[in-house]
Design a protein that fits this description.
alpha/beta, Rossmann fold, 2 domains, six-stranded mixed sheet, 12 helices, 15 strands
Length: 373
C-alpha cells in the first residue's frame, strides 16, 4: 500500500515538475457573451480560442521555457459598468494580454483600467476616441469609424450614385461615431443628408422614425448601430414600402443580420467592414476551414482579427524572448505582424497604418463581399 502511495506521489511530482517547466501566459477576452450581441462575443472568443489551442498544440519556446496559453473569458454584456468589472477580474487574475472589448462604449472606459495595470489591449472597437487616449499598450486591430463610415459614404456616392440620404444612430459610442463619419463624408461627396434621427440599442420599433424619413424620399438610410436593431429596421422599411437601401458599418455585416431580417435583408443592405476580403487573403481560406472544422460554423465578422491578435502577441513574445508586457509592447509598436485578416503595423496612437475596408451586401442571408478599398 505504501509503495503504491509513493509511486502515486512520484508520478504527481513528475507531472507537476514537467508542468513547472512551462511558462503560463493568460490571455484575457472581454466581450458580450450574453444578451442580443452574444453571437458576436462568442464568435470573437472562438477566434481567440482557436489561436490558443494551436499555440498549445505546437508550443513555442521563450527564454528556454515552453509557453502554455490559457484563455480567460469574461462576459462584459456590451455594458460599460459590466466591462469595468470584467477588466478588474482579468487584472486580478494576473492577465497581461487582452483581446477585446468589442464595443467602443466598453473599450473606452475599460482601457483606462487595463492601461493603469500595464495590460496590453488589442481591440476591434472602432470609435476614434479609443486611440486618442494615448495609451502605449493599446492597439486597434481593425479600421476605425472614420474609415468605416467615410468609405461607406464614398461607395454610396461614387458607385451607387446616390444623392439624397438620411442617418439614424443608436446613441452608443460606436453608433454615434460611425454615423457622424458617414454624414461628414456624405456631405463632402456632394450628397444631401435629409435627416438625422436617433434611437437606442434596445429599441425594436422604428416605424415613426422611418415614416418621417419616407416623406423625404431618401435613397438610402445609414444606420449607426448593431444587427439586433438593424434587422427589424430592414423588415419595417419593407412593410412601409420604403425602397431606400439600408447602409451600415461592421456591426451589421453579420450572418445574424440575415437570420433576423429574413427576406428583408438582401442586396438592399450594404455594410462596411475592416480588413480585406477573407477569401482573397493568403491565409483566409485555411483559417475559415480550421474554424469550421473546430466550431461547425463559418467565422463571423471578427473571429479572424481575434485569432490574429493572439498570434501577434505570441510572435512578439518570441521576438522579445520574454513574456514581460513592456518588452512585448515595444516589439509590437515597432514591428509588423502578417495575420490572416491583414498586416498589423501600428502608428504612434495604436491605429493600423493600413486598414483596407470591404463593402458587403447580402446573398441568401449571408454577407457577400463586393469590393475592398
Amino acid at each position: 500500500m505504501k509503495l503504491k502511495h509513493t509511486a502515486a506521489v512520484l508520478a504527481l511530482l513528475a507531472a507537476t515538475g514537467a508542468y513547472a517547466q512551462d511558462t503560463v501566459v493568460k490571455i484575457g477576452h472581454s466581450g458580450p457573451l450574453s444578451g442580443s450581441q452574444a453571437f458576436s462575443g462568442k464568435d470573437n472568443e472562438s477566434g481567440a480560442r482557436l489561436a490558443v489551442e494551436e499555440l498549445n498544440a505546437k508550443p513555442i519556446t521563450v527564454a528556454g521555457k515552453k509557453l502554455k496559453f490559457e484563455l480567460l473569458s469574461e462576459d462584459d454584456q456590451g455594458d460599460p459598468k459590466a466591462g469595468m468589472a470584467a477588466a478588474q477580474k482579468l487584472i486580478d487574475n494576473g492577465v497581461h494580454y487582452v483581446v477585446g472589448p468589442y464595443n467602443s462604449g466598453v473599450a473606452i472606459p475599460a482601457s483606462r483600467a487595463y492601461n493603469e495595470a500595464g495590460v496590453l489591449i488589442a481591440s476591434v472597437a472602432t470609435n476614434p476616441k479609443l486611440t486618442q487616449q494615448g495609451y502605449k499598450g493599446l492597439y486597434r486591430v481593425n479600421a476605425s469609424d472614420s474609415q468605416l463610415g467615410s468609405k461607406m459614404a464614398l461607395y454610396a456616392a461614387n458607385e451607387l450614385k446616390l444623392k439624397n440620404v438620411a442617418v439614424i444612430d443608436d446613441r452608443t459610442a460606436f453608433g454615434q461615431g460611425v454615423a457622424e463619419e458617414f454624414k461628414k463624408q456624405a456631405k463632402a461627396a456632394g450628397m444631401t443628408v435629409a435627416g438625422h434621427e436617433f434611437t437606442n440599442d434596445k429599441a425594436f420599433d422604428f416605424t415613426s422614425i422611418l415614416t418621417k424619413l419616407k416623406t423625404k424620399n431618401v435613397q438610402a438610410i445609414f444606420f449607426g448601430g448593431y444587427a439586433p436593431q438593424a434587422a427589424p429596421m430592414a423588415r419595417q422599411m419593407k412593410q412601409l414600402g420604403i425602397s431606400a437601401k439600408l447602409l451600415g458599418g461592421d456591426t451589421i455585416c453579420t450572418a445574424e443580420m440575415g437570420k433576423l431580417g429574413g427576406d428583408a435583408v438582401a442586396d438592399n443592405v450594404l455594410c462596411s467592414q475592416g480588413g480585406a476580403i477573407l477569401d482573397k487573403a493568403s491565409g483566409g481560406a485555411a483559417f475559415k476551414a480550421k474554424f469550421k472544422a473546430r466550431y461547425k460554423q463559418e467565422p463571423d465578422v471578427y473571429a479572424a482579427a481575434y485569432y490574429d491578435a493572439v498570434m501577434m502577441y505570441a510572435q512578439a513574445m518570441q521576438k522579445a524572448n520574454s513574456v514581460d508586457a513592456q518588452k512585448v509592447q515595444a516589439i509590437i509598436s515597432a514591428g509588423s505582424y502578417q495575420g490572416v485578416a491583414g498586416t498589423y503595423a501600428f502608428d504612434a496612437k495604436g491605429d493600423m497604418k493600413q486598414s483596407p475596408v470591404t463593402i458587403f451586401t447580402f446573398k441568401g442571408g449571408q454577407p457577400s463581399p463586393l469590393t475592398s478599398y
